[in-house]
Amino acid sequence: MDQYAVFGRPIQQSKSPFIHRLFAEQTHQQLTYGAIEPSEDESFAEAATAFFQSGGKGCNVTMPFKHDAHEFASQLSERAKIAGAVNTLKLLDDGGILGDNTDGAGLVADLKLNHVELEGARILIIGAGGAARGTLLPLLEEKPAQLDIVNRTASKAQQLADLFPNHDNISALGFQALADSYDVVINSTSASMTEQLPPVPAAIINENTCVYDMVYRQQPTVFMEWATHLGARKAIDGLGMLVAQAAESFAVWRGIRPGMRQVLRELNKNLG
Length: 272
Ligand code: ATR
Fold this sequence. Notes:
The chain is 37% helix and 19% strand. By secondary structure, the protein is α/β, with parallel strands linked by helices.
């Protein structure tokens, strides 16, 4: 049977095996999907080489190995190049390894599943780390009117905007420059993990704003509660992005796109 796996450290909390096994069942694909945590004295490249040599067909890669996977791949998709990180590796027919990044496509797919209009929208992304970077190209492909990046360290936001010299609708801002409201506000900072709010003014939210927090927890995040209190139209957490990036990886490997709703239902049951 074709073998797949997720690599990370730690890995025992990963939901990827659960998600991909359900996808395989749903699409009648014969495959196994495991979880691999390279030991402290083993590099990602060594662990991945062993996996592919023993018959692995593809893997997901999560913290802290997304940059190692980017180095490991023998060729990169356009979106992985711009993201500077890889979350999906695929063995190619010629023996090469394709590095891809499905995180941003996952975000866009989940926004669409939630009926959030992106074409012509004014979008704000808060944060300029790896999570933000992976979303920029897929968001720009949806043709927003404006994509602003705001970050505590403004120079990092500028570095991300500079990755797209041919787009005049992407800009970097400091928090003090935020004055107008947005149609879509995406929180990519790690602040929600520690119950903190990024220092954004209430002015960015109006009654038509949809906010998206890339983090998910059993309860709405502090950022979602803040936006809802200000009258935002929708507040969505990142569970759907997790499932959608997995669906996109599955499609890269198997050429068939699984549905998300059944898996989301099952995950919500487990979280609740
Ligand atoms: P990831 O790869 O998950 O994006 P990262 O690269 O460490 O992680 O980036 C974390 C992001 O969250 C950064 O944009 C960080 O801002 P700085 O670049 O100024 O460090 C942002 N961040 C983390 N905690 C924050 C907080 N309490 N308020 C605002 N921004 C925060």
